[in-house]
Amino acid sequence: MDRPWDRQVGERTEWYLRFLTFLKLGPSRSVERAYRVWVGREDVPVDPAWEEMARIWRWEERARAWDEAGGDLAEVDLDEGISQTLVTQARKLVALIQQEIGRLLERASWGPLSDEEIERMARLVRLLAATRDIAAPRF
């Protein structure tokens, strides 16, 4: 059975993961909206590379096939390479979060943290807790 929403031959993992972001937005999806979800900001124009890759990898056509098949993201086959890529990226994120927490702790050794710094530390700790689950999968 042909499943055009699965990763295509030659499609790089990073772009397939971006396609999945596009896919999960539902029938009213757009490349612009997917890009903004991916970068976590609403106030940015879409990167032209996204539009180009969406055209090359036929995101609209593949998503339409997905919608017509009544697809469920739980059924998407994330091959080992993609799963490992997610884990690798999560581990990099954990390292960056830990580094920033270390900077704030060092800063605290000089004197009391500001309210903004305390809030930043709290956000980083929450993000670290969530990301560690991804970075240390239980396969």
Helix count, per DSSP?
6
Radius of gyration: 19 Å
| First-to-last CA distance | 27 Å
Strand content: under 5%
Descriptive notes:
With 139 residues, the protein is mainly alpha-helical. Helices cover 64% and strands 0% of the residues. It is elongated. The two termini are 27 Å apart.
List the helices and strands and how they pair.
Layout: H1 13-23, H2 31-39, H3 48-56, H4 59-68, H5 80-108, H6 115-135
Helix pairs in contact: 1-2, 5-6
Brief synopsis:
By secondary structure, the chain is an all-alpha fold. It contains six helices and no strands.
Q: Which labels suit this protein?
A:
6 helices, 64% helix, elongated, 139 residues, mainly alpha
